[in-house]
């Protein structure tokens, strides 16, 4: 290798996996030059971001220093190796005691900032390790109001990475839905409110994507109505829905979640299946002109499957503006399998189930609170604590085959994971009275955030776990 011209060495190194590059540089006399070569690390990080979008990194790539590029590439490779190890020990766990009024916590893309939602509706942006929040956005709630729902969507294409939706109960059978973007490209994230909708009735579920907010509202006669509201500075608060779709009778026992796939497609995931609906075109003059006519609609695609509590374990995704395949599939971690969907702009849907990788005769067991990313997933597998001092987590390296990487597949060690991926595990020590409230995964860093509640004292604790 040392006898080859440097440009040939560089070209060969670009074809290798990260693990092989590091091994080569450790054994080759000219390896240190390769380790310092910006073009090689730029190539490897660009290839990584092509298949696993991380906008907060991609938007800085042109001006990123070599050492930071190298850090992200090697860090990602280490995560890929460790995530499916059995009973591994995370590198570090940091605990932050927080106010009893903390209702929700969420890691912002990049893993260095936390969104904290308080019981009174206030929002905080808190840098990990900082003594006080950098940003506090107060809400003026009355004694009759409370925050009872939080949804967060990771965008893989925009500089506003996380989308937070707060739903607040209001007297007289009303609620307010606030929609915020969190800009994370700048050194200090910032909240940007992009819409507010006041709704009469009890909203079952709501979500947003792009410039749309969609929420489900029971009709009063047993049907479920999906209301679609445009968002953005050109639309006034409380303008009301522009489109209302009656999807038919809905059982009061059937919870569901909404995913806005594009400005023309919305997905419902419920315990017994998945349905995708087409959103009718929205007229620019429609909002604010009274309630729209409610249209009866049928799903353009649906399937019956065992989603279970997987309705709360749905991956981020990207759409496509062309007739080609979406950049990345949408993945749901169901009761017994992954449910993988690619939804095309022309309404074609590719769907498959990937069973979890179990040894013969084994069962997946309990799947509790968790999160699903583009290539990794995690869930609580501790069905009954019974005084145990530990919470046990199952980690899952998703199979690369769901990405259809083709010729580039070998670069991401698809053969190591196999067609079903691989399972790993680790545990976290807690107090006997502490119970898990929520789990959040920031996939780029492999950072996991837990919100814990002491059922005896009411004290709450945030635990941040660095796997690598």
Defining key terms:
468 residues; 3 domains; four-stranded antiparallel β-sheet; 7 helices; 28 strands; 13% helix; F-box domain-containing protein; F-box_dom
Structure description:
The protein has 468 residues and is mainly beta. It folds into three domains: 6-78, no CATH class; 87-120 and 356-468, no CATH class; 141-334, no CATH class. 13% of the residues lie in helices and 40% in strands. The chain has seven helices and 28 strands. The strands form seven sheets. A five-stranded mixed beta sheet has the order 10-11-12-13-17, with no helix packed on it. Helix 4 (38-51) crosses helix 6.
Strand content: 35-45%
The gyration radius over C-alpha positions equals 23 Å
Number of separate domains = 3
Rough outline: globular
Give the uncertain stretches in residue-range form. none
Described by strand count, sense and barrel closure, the largest sheet is: 5 strands, mixed
Number of helices: 7
Strands side by side in the biggest sheet? 10-11-12-13-17
Please estimate the helix content: 10-25%
Overall residue-averaged pLDDT value: 82
Classification by helices and strands: mainly beta
The oligomerization state is single chain
The tally of beta strands, per DSSP, is 28
Distance between the termini: 31 Å
Protein name: F-box domain-containing protein
Pfam families: F-box-like (PF12937)
């Amino acid at each position: 290798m040392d006898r080859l011209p440097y440009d040939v060495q560089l070209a060969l190194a670009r074809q290798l996996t990260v693990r092989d590059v590091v091994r080569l540089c450790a054994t080759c006399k000219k390896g240190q030059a390769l380790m310092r070569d910006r073009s090689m690390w730029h190539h490897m990080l660009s290839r990584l971001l092509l298949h696993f979008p991380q906008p907060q990194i991609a938007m800085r790539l042109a001006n990123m220093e070599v050492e930071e590029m190298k850090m992200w590439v090697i860090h990602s490779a280490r995560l890929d190796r460790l995530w499916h190890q059995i009973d591994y020990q995370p590198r570090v766990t940091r605990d932050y005691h927080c106010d009893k009024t903390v209702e929700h916590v969420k890691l912002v893309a990049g893993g260095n900032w936390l969104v904290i939602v308080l019981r009174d509706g206030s929002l905080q942006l808190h840098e990990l390790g900082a003594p006080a929040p950098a940003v506090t956005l107060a809400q003026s709630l009355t004694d009759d109001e409370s925050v009872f729902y939080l949804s967060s969507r990771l965008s893989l294409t925009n500089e506003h990475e996380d989308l937070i939706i707060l739903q607040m109960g209001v007297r007289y059978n009303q609620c307010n839905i606030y929609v915020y973007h969190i800009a994370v490209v700048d050194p200090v994230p910032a909240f940007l409110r992009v819409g507010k909708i006041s709704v009469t009735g009890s909203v079952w579920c709501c979500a947003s994507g792009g410039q749309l907010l969609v929420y489900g509202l029971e009709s009063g006669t047993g049907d479920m109505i999906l209301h679609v509201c445009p968002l953005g500075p050109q639309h006034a608060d409380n303008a009301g829905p522009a489109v209302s779709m009656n999807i038919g009778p809905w059982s009061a026992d059937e919870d569901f979640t909404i995913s806005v796939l594009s400005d023309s497609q919305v997905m419902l995931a419920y315990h017994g299946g998945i349905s995708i609906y087409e959103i009718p075109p929205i007229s620019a003059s429609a909002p604010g002109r009274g309630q729209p006519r409610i249209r009866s609609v049928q799903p353009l695609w649906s399937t019956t499957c065992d989603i279970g509590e997987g309705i709360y374990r749905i991956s981020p995704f990207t759409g496509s503006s062309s007739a080609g395949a979406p950049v990345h599939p949408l993945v749901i971690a169901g009761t017994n399998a992954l449910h993988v969907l690619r939804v095309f702009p022309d309404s074609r849907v590719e769907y498959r189930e990937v069973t979890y990788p179990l040894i013969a005769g084994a069962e997946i067991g309990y799947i509790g609170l968790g999160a699903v990313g583009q290539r990794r997933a995690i869930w609580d597998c501790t069905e009954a604590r019974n005084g145990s001092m530990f919470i046990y987590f199952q980690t899952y390296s998703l199979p690369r085959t769901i990405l259809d990487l083709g010729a580039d597949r070998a670069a991401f060690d698809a053969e190591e994971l196999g067609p079903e991926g691989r399972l790993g595990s680790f545990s976290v020590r807690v107090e006997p009275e502490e119970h898990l409230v929520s789990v959040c995964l920031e996939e780029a860093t492999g950072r996991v955030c837990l919100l814990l509640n002491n059922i005896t004292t009411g004290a709450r604790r945030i635990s941040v776990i660095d796997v690598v």
